[in-house]
Amino acid sequence: MNIEYPARELLANLPTPLQALDRISETFSYPYNGPRIWVKRDDLTESAMSGNKLRKLEFIIAEAKAQGCDTLITCGGEQSNHCRATALAAAKAGLQAHVLLRASRNSDAGALTPDGNLLVDYLAGARVSLYPLKEYLSRLPTLFEEWRAHYLQQGRKALCIPTGGSDGLGIWGYIAGAEEVIADCRGQGFEPEYLVCATGSGGTQSGLSLGCQLLGVSTQVTGYAVCDDEAYFLRKVAQDVADWEARYPNAVVDGFTFDTQRVAVIDDYIGPGYAMATEEIYQSIALLAQQEGLLLDPVYTGKAFHGLLNEIKRGRYRDCKNLVFVHTGGQFGIFPQRAGFKSSWAEK
Ligand SMILES: *Cc1c(COP(=O)(O)O)cnc(C)c1O
């Protein structure tokens, strides 16, 4: 299908590599009959602005410039990868970034020594506003409006970017990403039965699902939830795609309808909650580091990959030959959770 892409700011090093994980695939081939697992290295989009958010930001920043904006306001958790990528991408594009962060429960926002992504937000010159959990949850739309008005008063113009950059604009990143990964697979002589990713604000999954349907491939996109449940993500994907259809009625010709029935979410591996992992998840991260030299993170990719390995054990992918795990990045999130990896280093 001919897809009419909007303007794009080139920020990522594309295409990212597609690599076979043969050692881990071998480990799970017997007795589980697991597939050949491939990894799409979207953690390598750019070393500092690494991860999936940069694909979305290519379209978001192009839109910001087209609207004459000089500021980007966005939001997320204290260790938000999306906010960090936005802070750096804004710096590169000559825009100001302002990140509205949900202070983590156990940090005293005032006395905090910034670590991981938060440290990088400051390094990149972003304006950082930390809000207590309660205020963040109850006032987020108002906070966006207040700050937008604040900048307007100063004669500046801000673009507000929703959580994770996930909406009808941001999902262009993974419509293009789906096109890229399917082309990579064809280059290797196969069409994957499954594309698997961590799903958090839903946009990556929305883009991949929509992209695969636009391409007309039968590849099943499965999101492994890291926070909310299946019903939430089914709704969110439908909402992102509807927003995309409304904003870009001419993006595709010849009557296309998105089939929401094909959207698949597995919500059995969230663990105790968003950004909270379990010993098993930390161990799966260590396993991938040891067997493949591949670094996953405890908030998104480690949870999703742990879930994937467990589902392979349970026989879900018994009849699948090739499965692609989209590595969405997040490695800066390892360090603030160093204590969780204690069994890897404590007795060494
Ligand atoms: C944000 C993020 C995700 C989830 O992507 P969404 O588009 O928000 O669902 C997955 N992995 C990493 C590392 C992320 O930062």
Automatic annotation (TrEMBL):
The keyword RNA-binding does not apply. InterPro entries: ACCD_DCysDesulf, TrpB-like_PALP, TrpB-like_PALP_sf. Residues 12-329 form the Tryptophan synthase beta chain-like PALP domain. Pfam families: PALP (PF00291). Belongs to the ACC deaminase/D-cysteine desulfhydrase family. Keywords: Pyridoxal phosphate. It comes from Microbulbifer elongatus. This is D-cysteine desulfhydrase family protein. The keyword Transcription does not apply.
